[in-house]
Amino acid sequence: MIRILQISILCLVLLAGISIPAVISSSSDSETIYEILQANGLPSGIFPKGVTEFTFDAETGRFSVYLNQSCDAKYETELRYDTNITGTIGSANIGDLSGISAQELFLWFPVKGIRVDVPSSGLIYFDVGVVRKQYSLSLFETPRDCVAVRGLNQVESSVLSLHQVDQTLGRNVI
Q1: Nearest Cα to 125, choosing from 42, 35, 38?
Q2: CB–CB of 128/112 below 8 Å?
Q3: In which element (H, E) is residue 95 found?
Q4: Please, which pLDDT band fits residue 3 given cuts at 50, 70 and 90?
Q5: 27-45 in b/e burial notation, b at 16+ Cβ within 10 A?
Q6: d(CA 139, CA 28)
Q7: Within 13 Å of residue 49, how many CA atoms lie on the same side as its CB?
Q8: Closest CA to 114 of 129, 104, 124
Q9: In the predicted model, what is the mean pLDDT of the chain?
Q10: Which H or E run includes 150?
């Protein structure tokens, strides 16, 4: 009976030893979202710095990118990134895109798709519904810093924090 238990434990240890290296090697082979973009003919700077997590289905091209908070990045115009960005990556394009908006004048338009023209042309197109915005591909070579989007309540509270009351003198201090 003890002999069977020893053999069972030995088999379990051997199986665990075989499966652990397989898990370790698969996690070290994982690509970043920026590498996946480049492998599909897209520049890595389409998404900003600060991607905390992402999922990608290589068979369908569907992806989800997660950021800590909504943020704005400055290119020729400003792009706004939601905390969750989804879409489908294809060859030199992203379709069914949600979670990115482009500013034109003082209005924000949702970006529905992104397409790289022939790479030698140096152009990238953003489909914002009514028009396609054309940008230089070089603007998107590297991921940009992204500044947190602040809501109205946060703006008001930051303005109020500048204005304090000095309790000892009973006067306002700015």
Answers
A1: 42
A2: yes
A3: strand 93-104
A4: low
A5: eeeeeebbebbeeeebbbb
A6: 30
A7: 7
A8: 124
A9: 79
A10: none
113 to each of 21, 85, 109, 149, how far by Cα in Å? 39, 12, 12, 22
Contact 43, 123 (CB under 8 A): no
CA 3 to chain CA centroid, Å, is 55
pLDDT at 4: 53
Q: Virtual CA dihedral for 165, 168, 170, 173, nearest 10 degrees?
A: -40
Element (H, E) at 16: helix 2-28
The two structure tokens encoding residue 13: 């240890």
Distance CA 161, CA 106 (A): 28
Higher pLDDT, 86 or 25: 86
User: Sign of the C-alpha dihedral, residues 95, 98, 99, 102?
Assistant: positive
Prediction pTM value: 0.69
Give me the count of residues in the chain: 174
Higher model confidence: residue 80 or residue 150? 80
Per-residue pLDDT band for 118 (boundaries 50, 70, 90) equals confident
